[in-house]
Every structure is written in C-alpha cells, then in structure tokens.
Amino acid sequence: MNILKWMAGAVLAAALSNTAFSGTDSSVNSEWITLGTMAGPQPDPVHSQPANALVVNDRVYLVDAGDGTVGRLTTAGLNMQSIEAVFISHLHFDHTGGLPALISLRWQTGASDMLTVYGPPGTRQMVEGIFAFMAYGVEGHYGVPGKIPPPANRNVKVVELGDGESVKFEDFTLTAARNTHYSWPKGSEEWKKFLSFAYKFELPGRIIVYTGDTGPSEAVEKLARGADLLVSEMMDIDHTIALLKRVNPGMEGEVFTGITTHLSNHHLSPEQVGQIADRAGVKNVVVTHMAPGLIEPEEVEYYTRRVKALYKGPVTIARDLDRF
C-alpha cells in the first residue's frame, strides 16, 4: 500500500471519528484518540511515537507525549493551548520527546491556562530540564526592545504520583499502578527511584485503562478488571530484535544483550495482551505502541488473530488518529 494513501486514510478516519466504543452515560462525551501508535525509539515515516488524547466534554488531556505529538494534535483538530493536563507513564524518551515542543510552543504562543504534568518520580526533574532548554530563547524572546518575557515556567506545574495513588478531576478519577516495564530488585534504590505506570481513567459510565509500557503484570490485570476499554502496548519481540541487529550492525554485544533482555521481559507479546485482557474481563481491546509499525491489512490481521487466540472480545490494532 502506498504510504501517502495510508496517511490520507488515517486523516480521513480521524475526521470521520472512527468510534469503536462510546460511553453509556449520555451526559458525558468521551473519546480516546491514538495520536501516535509506533513504539520508539526508531523513527517511522508513517507512525508517530506514543501519545494519546483523552477528550471529555471538550476538555483535552494528553496521555504520554512522544515525538510528533503537537503535529498529531493539530491533525486531530485539537488545540495545544487547551490541554488541561499531561499524564506521563514513564520517562523513556519515546514517551516524552514531544513534551519540550508542547511546553515551549505553548509559551511562545502565549498560552494562558495552567498545564499540569503528572508522572512518576523524576517528572519534575525532567520538566525543569525543559525549562533550562528554553532559557536562552525565552531571554531573547522576539527581540523587541523593552519587552520583558514571562518566565518559562509561568503556567506549568508538576505533580509526581506514587504507586496506587488516585487523583480526582472534574471529568474522571485517575489511578496509577506500577507495572513491570522495569525489573529492579524490589526494595532496591533503583526500585524506589524508577517507576513506570499504567493508568486507569474512571469516567461516569466508562472505564479506560492504559497499560503504558509493561511486561506481564498482575497489577495491570487488577487495574483493568472489568474495564470498558483496555489500551495496551504490544510488541513483536523477535521481529524487533532482528530489526535492531539489521539497522545497528556495529552495536556492542553488552548493549545488545541489555536491550534484548529489556524487550523480552518488559513488553507484551500479542498472546500476553490477549491473556491480560481475558483475565481482566475487559470489554474492548485497542493495541498501540506497536513494533513493528503496521501498514498492510494482512499484517494487522496476523497480529489481531494472535491476540484473539486468548481473548474473544473485540480487538483493534490502532492507527495514528483513530478514535474510540
């Protein structure tokens, strides 16, 4: 399939609002938009990196912000200045690479509303680093004599979350649960310092669970129990390892071994996605953070079939800009 035709189709799908599921409470209009569906860090000409928008009663929340997020927001018809909050699942760069653009471009275009960034420990340090990245450009501003630019952090704040913590918003309740994207020994300093989250969004009449990046996880299964929509990462681990070998022939053995261990233990195969969905009794599954990025219908059908071998409900392999 021609890539340009596929991209045009994705944009059309967004415009037509490909609604695979709608909430049961008519007073609450909610939509989950997969802005970017390709696992990083390798860039892809068709798919943006992991990012999602949760739109509830015209309020917009970002769930992860990989490279390309601002452009995908615009294509989806959403205004970056209207983002209420950002929820970062973990601090790998394919999930945070679009955040400097979001924060700095909001500053440059005079966004006045407060933007709150929620995430695991380390999120504050990351955002402070974004302010440092902005410092020189903020000082020079537009080069108009006599104009004093506002500080980079004037309308951005950070809230770091803990495992099991819940936060009530106007539109939903958010709950964070530590998943298994890291496997530090429990109780170690690294285990305390580095967390990766799955998130549950409890809306009136609808529950959405986002796995973030994770391996098999009892905590994620528990979080997802009875959810209306499970938005799950998925990776063809063997394919990804083979790709790494091909595009990085000079990669040192120790580095390659570490990456292989990470991919094998800290991500979900199609069968593992099906297993989590089946055990949790979720009503619908949407697969994102896919590696490899899928274009051809036969590829989509192949991976869908593997998930459905263990889960009998509806399964959608998401494209960028799909809406649920």
Automatic annotation (TrEMBL):
Signal peptide start-end: 1-22
Family annotation (InterPro entries): AtsA-like_MBL-fold, Metallo-B-lactamas, RibonucZ/Hydroxyglut_hydro
Entry GO MF terms: 3'-tRNA processing endoribonuclease activity
Domain Metallo-beta-lactamase: 50-251
Keyword Nucleus on entry: no
Keyword line: Hydrolase, Signal
Protein name per its UniProtKB record: Ribonuclease BN (tRNA processing enzyme)
Source species of the chain: Microbulbifer rhizosphaerae
